[in-house]
Specification:
The protein is α+β, with helices and mostly antiparallel strands. 21% of the residues lie in helices and 39% in strands. The chain has 4 helices and 10 strands, in the order ββαβαβββαβαβββ. The chain has an 8-stranded mixed sheet with strand order 4-5-6-3-7-10-9-8. Strands 1-2 form a two-stranded antiparallel sheet. The radius of gyration is 19 Å and the shape is globular.
């Protein structure tokens, strides 16, 4: 580990350099990594063109989740996915989100190893979940959401790959 010299108005000090080595702590919460960022959009085709231009690559998948009233497309960059979400009916959560807040970041999704355990763990820790049982989501995932009132107005999705 190196030492960085930091100039201050007082006496010079020495501080350890920043190290990006982060210890995994998945045992307590189940979160393994940021799996994707969900972005609510009005028009999936136009947004696909915009994000392809922005990221320099095309989406790799489009699918519909009829039970949620949403069509999605996925991009991948730097090991993280970006999920664009377009409402397929006026009563869907995405349509309501766009009506209230406009297009933009809808949720952060974190991969978990055991979604049932994670739901119970976050409930036990005092977080309010929008669903107490996992449900089918896009990209071959089981999902559950933590209410934004529990997480500083950020909708958090827990997701686990279907086995």
């Amino acid at each position: 580990m190196g030492i960085a010299v930091v100039k201050t108005f007082g006496k010079p000090g020495k501080f350890p350099e920043f190290s990006p080595k982060i210890k995994k702590t998945s045992g307590n919460s189940g979160m393994e990594k940021l799996e994707h960022i969900g972005i609510a959009v009005k028009n999936l085709e136009e947004s696909n063109k915009l994000f392809a231009k922005l990221l320099g690559k095309s989406h790799y998948k489009i699918e519909e989740v009829a039970s949620e009233g949403v069509r999605t497309s996925f991009f991948e960059i730097g090991g993280v996915k970006i999920e664009l979400l377009e409402a397929t009916n006026a009563d869907s959560p995405i349509a309501k989100f766009i009506d209230k807040r406009g297009e933009g970041i809808h949720h952060l999704a974190f991969e978990v190893t055991n979604i049932e355990h994670s739901i119970q763990s976050y409930t036990d820790k005092g977080f309010t979940l929008l669903n107490q049982q996992p449900k089918s989501g896009a990209d071959n995932k089981q999902i559950a959401f933590i209410h934004p009132k529990s997480t500083n107005s950020v909708l958090v999705e827990l997701c686990q790959e279907n086995r």
